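hi! just following up on the protien thing from before. the input was this:
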Amino acid sequence: MPKQHKILIVDDQMGIRILLKETFSEEYQVELAENGNQAIKKVKQFQPSIILLDMKMPDLSGVETLHLIRELNITVPVILMSGFDEFDIINKTKGLEQVHYINKPFDLEEIKMMVKELLLKAKDSNHICSL
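and the predicted 3d structure came back as:
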C-alpha cells in the first residue's frame, strides 16, 4: 500500500536529516533537502504534505525559505525547527498560515505526534472544504 503523506525535511545538518528520515520513513514518503534552494526545488517536484524546516541554514534561512514557499501558494503545514528564541521566530513569521514551531533539541516522540496532529487537521480541513 502506498504511503499517503509526504514529508520534506530541510536541515543543513546531515545527522538531523538522517535521524528524521529514519523516524518518519516507515509511515511516510520522505524527501530531504540540505538548504533553502534545494527545498524550493523539492517542494515543486515532491509536493509534500508537511515540511520540517530548520531555521538557521546557509544561503537562505528557514524564514526566507518559508516566505518563498508561501509565494508559490503552497500552504501545507510547516514545522520550524530552531535552537533559538521562539518569540523571534514568531515575529519573523507573523501573518503566515500553517506555521508551527519546535525547539531543538527535540524529542522524537513529540515531533512525531506534532506531524500526525497537523496532517490530521489538514485532512479534516480539506474534507470540510470539499463538502
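The chain is about 45% helix and 20% strand.
The chain has one domain: 6-130.
cheers
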